[in-house]
Design brief:
The chain is α/β, with parallel strands linked by helices and 375 residues long. It has 13 helices and 18 strands.
Length: 375
């Protein structure tokens, strides 16, 4: 196949391009090399430059999109702004890139008869669930609403049952769960996903929305202060600077290793997978932030002081981990890299990379100035 990867110069995109090339596919990458993500690196990695087609352009530009799509069979739509906290005040930009860019892509696929795309795979996100699925002793499976500021200010961080108000415990979130994003980023990913699935089904084109959990691994950006606690904390640990943990440190995420994400995405592109599907892509286990910090400081033998601050950001969820049964059933894929193994690969790679402060404190200051961070 000839596969177009929008946002293909990024972390997931470059790994996916290598995987697709290894399977014998042709790859075209569309990317605008956003400085927030790429910094001064304004070209593809050396090993890809002679192997893929590159369109320097923006998903908000119809002509750029058209140039990339000519002659292609499939599209993997990765291009997006991805900072949960930043999305709460860069509202217009997140809307333009994530929503308008996706709308323009689908507009082309619906209306331009010169294109022959038969499948779209869109990068969705666990953020579309908000808190996701929990279990209440009184009411069984429940889906808590976004946590209230006054409750978190009092140090009560666990979600409450929306029926009785009692504490509840997190469960694996299946794809049938209600969509209730608590950040604008999550809302844009929900719109992206539903736009692709709706329009593709209308014109008889296969479409798969992959609801990625927290993707990590060698090659991810170490300089983008708006995403990636692994990158942020590893940089602080290497410099022996204080590591401040939000809330009580027991908030958790489902970390899924980059190789598993690439393999699942390639499975989604396989011509044997038909129809419209929304599929969780995670490892299926929750790891607390405290456990993450412990792994990082231990690896580097860091002298960083670790402080659990009680601070919290508006738009953050408390817990979420994926039910991966549909991933196995539809794509016949089971993730194989557990966090305790994957974090060692990531940290060994990060240890060899330049260690520079990347504006993390500034990003927090921006949130405080807008009343989006408290504690």
């Amino acid at each position: 196949m000839q596969i177009v990867i929008t946002g293909g110069a990024g972390f997931i995109g470059t790994k996916l391009a290598r995987g697709a090339l290894a399977q014998g596919h042709e790859v075209v990458i569309l990317d605008n090399f956003s400085p927030q993500i790429h910094g001064s690196q304004q070209d593809l990695p050396l090993d890809l430059r002679s192997q893929v087609g590159l369109v320097r352009g923006d998903v908000r530009n119809r002509d750029d999109l058209k140039r990339a799509l000519i002659g292609a069979d499939s599209v993997v739509h990765l291009a997006a702004e991805t900072g949960t906290g930043q999305s709460m005040y860069e509202v217009s930009r997140y809307s333009e890139v994530n929503i308008q860019g996706t709308s323009l892509l689908m507009d082309l696929l619906v209306n331009d008869r010169s294109l022959a795309i038969h499948k779209v795979v869109v990068a969705s996100s666990r953020a579309i669930y908000g808190e996701g699925r929990y279990h209440c002793m009184n009411h069984g499976a429940v889906y808590p609403k976004a946590r209230r500021q006054e409750t978190m200010a009092a140090g009560q961080f666990e979600p409450e049952c929306p029926v009785c108000g009692e504490p509840c415990r997190v469960e694996a979130t299946p794809e049938t769960s209600p969509l209730s994003p608590s950040s604008f980023y999550g809302l844009t990913k929900q719109v992206q996903e539903q736009t692709v699935l709706m329009m593709s089904e209308a014109i008889g084109m296969d479409a798969i929305a992959l609801r990625y959990q927290n993707v990590y691994g060698p090659g991810q950006s170490l300089r983008n202060p708006y995403t990636g606690i692994l990158a942020i904390f590893s940089g602080l640990a290497r410099r022996s600077e204080k590591i401040r943990i939000f809330e009580d440190g027991l908030e958790s995420r489902d970390f899924v290793y980059i190789d598993d994400v690439v393999d699942a995405t390639l499975r989604a592109l396989d011509p044997s997978v038909h129809g419209a599907h929304a599929i969780n892509v995670g490892f299926g286990e929750a790891t607390s932030v405290v456990a993450v910090v412990n792994e990082i400081t231990k690896f580097f033998g860091s002298n960083s002081a670790v402080e659990v601050t009680g601070e919290f950001r508006i738009g953050d969820i408390r817990h979420n981990f994926a039910d991966v049964a549909v991933l196995k059933m539809v794509l016949n894929y089971v993730p194989i890299v557990p966090f305790v193994e994957g974090i060692q690969h990531f940290l060994a790679w990060a240890a060899e990379e330049p260690n520079q402060a990347a504006g993390y404190e500034q990003s927090l200051a921006e949130l405080r100035q807008r009343g989006l961070m408290h504690g």
